[in-house]
Design goal:
Structural class: mainly alpha
Number of strands: 2
Order of helices and strands: EEHH
Radius of gyration: 34 Å
Shape: rod-shaped
Strand order of the largest sheet: 1-2
Helix content: over 70%
Number of helices: 2
Mean pLDDT: 85
Length: 164
């Protein structure tokens, strides 16, 4: 807890009080700026997590649609191959099979990234929540205490030192 410095009197008034008050006012201003800046940083972090989750969900949706389309085309090709007669040209479905494999593999990769992001976001949320509590409760309380010290010192500065 911050304490007001002991005041000592000299012929000209209170020694060093002006510098102390100015320093404490500077600290107070720095704390306020820090709190506001860090709130913005925390909010940007949450926005980035949200944007990343949204982008991955959109990509997963696209890949799911691609995989379903590729599976439908592959199934259609296999059906055509099964219906082909001995006099027909052979039906090659390998390209469709590769497309299904590729889309499915990409979807699995996206799902792994989604899990990683969810794990990291969960960890971030815990730390960010504690930091937010510090910014929203503890730091304002400290700022109020510091403002009270500054006010007390300013009142003391206004007192005239007793004549010797």
């Amino acid at each position: 807890m911050l304490r007001a410095p002991e005041l000592t009197a000299d012929r000209g008034g209170v020694t060093g009080i002006h510098a102390d008050i100015d320093a404490l006012k500077g600290l107070y201003g720095a704390l306020v700026r820090y709190r506001h800046a860090q709130r913005e940083v925390a909010a940007r972090g949450e926005d980035q997590v949200r944007a990343t989750r949204t982008a991955l969900a959109d990509k997963a949706s696209q890949l799911r649609a691609q995989a379903e389309l590729a599976q439908g085309e592959y199934a259609g090709c296999r059906e055509r191959a099964a219906q082909a007669g001995p006099e027909d040209l052979p039906v090659d479905c390998s390209g469709y099979a590769r497309a299904v494999e590729q889309a499915t593999g990409q979807l699995e990769q996206i799902q792994l990234w989604q899990q990683r992001i969810d794990d990291a976001a969960s960890e971030f949320s815990g730390v960010a929540g504690r930091f937010s509590g510090l910014l929203g409760e503890e730091l304002p309380r400290l700022e109020e205490h510091l403002a009270a010290i500054v006010a007390s010192l300013e009142r003391a500065r206004q007192l005239q030192a007793p004549a010797s």
